[in-house]
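Quick question, first post here. What does this chain look like in 3D?
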Amino acid sequence: MKSPLFVFALSSVLFSCQPDTVGVDDIDIIANPLIAVPIGEINLTMDNLLTPDDSLIYDDNTTYKLVVAQDSVFGISVNDLITLPAQSPSTSSISMGTIGVDNVSLSNGITLGTVANSANLTAISAAHNMNAPFPAIAETNLGVFGGGGFGSFTSASFSAGSLDLSLTNNWPVPVTLNVDLVDKTNSNATILSYVLPNVPAGGTVTAAGDLTGKSLPNNIGFSITSLTSGSSTSALIDTTDALDLLISSQNLQVYSAVTQIATQDISSDTQYVDLSTGGSEELRELRFQTASFDFEFTSSLAEDMELTLGFPGSDKNGLEVDTVITIASGQTTTGSINLNNTILDLTTDPSQAHSKLPVAVTAKMIGSGNLVTVDSSDALSMEFEMTNLQFGHIKGYFGTQQIVIDPGNVPLAIDFLENFEGAISFSDPSISMDITNSIGLPIELALDFSSFGDGTTFPLNGPNYVLPYPTVLGNTETGTLVFDNTNSQIVDVFTLPKDSISYGGNVNVNHDTTTFGTQNFVTNTSAISGNLLMELPFSITASGLTFGDTLAQELDLSSSIPDSVAIEEVTLHMLNTTTLPLNATIELKFYDESWVLVHSETLSLLESGIPNSNGIVTSANAVSTDLALEGAALEAVLSSSAIIAEASMETYDGGTTPVKLRTDATIGISLGIDIKVGANIDIL
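> Answer (accepted):
Ran it through. C-alpha cells below.
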C-alpha cells in the first residue's frame, strides 16, 4: 500500500495549490480524478527460482531432473559364496602284507647202497658191479635222509606258493617212492608228503606240494616212508646208483620270514583328500595360489622304501606334479610338496566325481641283499595335510543359497515441497542398478524397494533380475538393471512428497540350474558390486498443491490515509504470461484484529499453455486480471489487521497430462493500479 499512499499524498499537495478562481466562501468542490500508475514488470525463469544442487540437476541444460545416487548399495565377495575350510590331517597306511621271495631249490641223492644198508638187503650189497637178478624191495620207514635249508631265507611262513618234489630214478628197475618233507629241528615233524609212483628206470616223476599256510625251517630232510622196487630179470647192480630228489619252488609268498627281500613294488594305490566345503558345493577344478602338501611317513618295514607321490591330472607349468621320497627302514620321514600355482583335477574319484584330491602312491621296497626279519603286519603309516591354502580359482558348482542384502535408507525430503500441501507425481521416474560382476555364476536379484510417506509404504514391486555375469574365467561383466513405469509401480513410489526410501532384498545363487546349468567359477578376487541411481525427470503431474503464508500483520491502513483524501475505488491490473505448464490461483484473505475473516479475493495468476507431445509448452500463454475494490470491500481491506495469501497450483489439464518442467520456462508479471480518489478543496 506504500505506492498508493504516496500517490494520495502527492495529489493532495497539488490540489491545495490551485489559484482562487471562485469568490464564494465555504463552497466545497468534490474532485474525482482518476490516477493511473504503472507499477512495473517482473520477468523470471525457472533458473531464477530453482537452484541446482547435488540432487536437482539439469538434463541437457533444459529439463530439471531429481537425482539420488548411492554407491555400493550391495556387494558380494567370493568369500560370501565359497571358502576352503581348514583341512584336518588324513591318515592311511601301506601294510607289508605277503612278500615275494626268490624261488629256491634243494637236492639230495639216495644211493642204492644206502637203501640196502638201511633195509639190510645184503643180496644187493653182495652183487655190486655184477649182473644179477634185482631183488624185490618193499620197505617202509627207511629213515630221514639229507638235511639243510634254503640260502635265501632261514625260516619262512608262506601264504602262497608250491614246493614240488621231483624223483629221477637212476636204478635199473622201476621205483615207487613215498617221501615226507620233515623239520629236522622239530623231531622230524612232517611238513609236506609226496607220492612218486612207478618211476621207470632212468625216468623222472614230479609231485606237487602246496605251501599255503606252511612254514619251512632252516634244516629240512627227506623221510622215506615207503619204497617198492624189483625185477625178476638180471641187471647190472651198482650200489652207487642214486634216487635223485630235487625240491624246487614256484610263486613263493611269505608273510613271516627271516629272508632276503628282492627289490619289488609292494603297493600302488590312489588316496583321496576330501576338499568338500561341508555344503552342497561341488569343486571340480582348483588352482592353488599357495598351498603346501605336508606329509609324514613312519616305517616299521625291514628294508628302505622308495615312495612315488603324485597328483593325477595336476598341472604345474605344464607338468604333472610328482616326487620320489626315500623312507629309511624303521624311521619317520617328514616333508612337504609345494603346490603354489598348481591346477588340480578333483573329479577322478569313481565314487564321487568332485571335491576329492587324488594322491597316487607307489611304494617300492629296496632289497639290501641281507637276511632280514619280515612280517606281513609291518607297515608304512602315512599322514597327509593341506596347509596354507589360498586358491587362485575354483571351478565347479557352488550350490544354491540366498544372501541377504544389508538394508539401507535414503532420505527423500525435498525442501521446496515442504511448504506445499498436495502431491507431485513423476510420470517417467527410473531406478537403475549398475552392476560390476567378476563371479562366474548366475545370481538373481530380488530387490525390496519402497518409499514411505505419512506412515504408508509404497512398494516398487519390480521384476527379479539375473545379474550380468562372465562366462570366461578372469573376465568382468557389467550391465544395468532398470526399473521404470513399464515394469514396476515406480510412479507410486515417487509420487511426492515422501519421507524416505528403503532398499534391501536378497540375491539367489544358482536359482535355476535347468536353465543356467551348474558350471560356476570364481577367482580369489571375484566380487559383485551394485550402485543405485534414482532419476526423476520433471515430467510431472501435480494437483492440489497449496501454499499459504501470512503476508502482513498489525496493519493500520486507514490511519495512513490523510483525511483530505477519500479513496473511492482501487483497481489492480495484472497481466501474467508464462511458458510454465502450470495453472495457479491465489486467494487473499483479510482478517480484523480478532482474526475474523472480513474479506477475500481470488486471483488467477497463471494459466498454462498447451504442451506439445513431449510435454513442453513452447509458446507463452497470458492471463489478464482486474481486481476492483470499492465500497464495503474497500473499507474491509483498509480496516484489516492481517493478510494471508493461499496459492493453489496444478499442472496442465487438471494434473492428468504429464508435462516437463524446464529451466527456460518463463514467468512475466506486469502490474498497474488505478486509484479513484475524492479531495475536499477549501475556496477562500
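The chain is about 10% helix and 55% strand.
The first strand starts at residue 29 and ends at 31.
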